[in-house]
Amino acid sequence: MAAHLEGPDLLALHARALEHFGALVRAVPADGWRAPTPCTDWTVRQLVNHLASEQLWAPELLAGATVAEVGDRFDGDVLGDDPVAAWAAAADAARAAFAAPGALERTVHLSYGERRAAGYAREMTVDAIVHAWDLAQGIGADATVDPAAAEFALAELARQADSLTASGLFADPVPVPPDADAATRLLGLVGRDPAHPLGR
To answer: Contact, 86 vs 78, CB < 8 A?
Structure first.
């Protein structure tokens, strides 16, 4: 049931996922921006930059823009001299765009085709949930995944399990016990090893 959240319930989970990620951004120590994360190609700053860039896309796509029309506007570094403020502004804009009346009923033009905006919101929510765990590991913070958020993200991604690795966006799944909780199964599905999050 969690995978089919719509309307206010979906918006509430999306907002909570952004706020949780934002709390971790605010907790990054001054010397922690270059620290490694479970995303082997990204430091803490690069991970936050990735998520901030994604948020900047949302208002544009929800307003009907195509990927080609946005172009390279949000490529490269979008955090500038104040990563915390840059993240907050991007997240606030994305949250407001999704919460606008009728926004979830629109059609958005994504890189892989057209999708109903509610599906785009679910995709963005899953990304924030998974990358919050990555960020928490990178800065040594509490990496607990909210059970409801984990159930939602697991249900969303389980339907794509066979294509996740093939997409090139995820590492190979990590085996987990069959009786593991939703968070552990989610992390294993997307190639994260809770026992060795940074490969150590």
So the answer is: yes
